[in-house]
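Sample entry (150 residues):
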Amino acid sequence: MHKPTELIEYETMLLGRHSLATRRSRREGGLLERSAYILLSRIRIEGPMSIRQLSEAFDLDPSTLNRQTSAMLRDGLVERIPDPAGGIARKFRITAEGERRLDSERGQITAGIDKIMSEWTAEEVEAFASFLQRFNTDIERLAGSPWPRP
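Predicted structure, serialized as tokens:
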């Protein structure tokens, strides 16, 4: 018999390999890079963010974020703007195209989850969502890096 935490480890490993959305190709403009999806989600919730703020939020080296944000700039997903608060650093703001692509991707993922969970009761879906949120917030609490939620 395996410990429940061993089962959770194995199942989260498997979850990481699955796509939850019906995917379109990048050439069709439908599929965001995973890093772009996560960065856009954070910028949407937080508002414009500098490389330093993104580095702190994601615990990533600024050089990694410079590569990721450069690709997002090139794809028209974000734009660089002066700090609205008057600071020196320029910040990244999500563009209308970034909003559209993020909404499209999120809609595809939600539709995929709806399909996967179509035989679950409403109570089971709510319980799973609650446990998943608690799991994530406990990870964030231990890491000292809470993720803002809408």
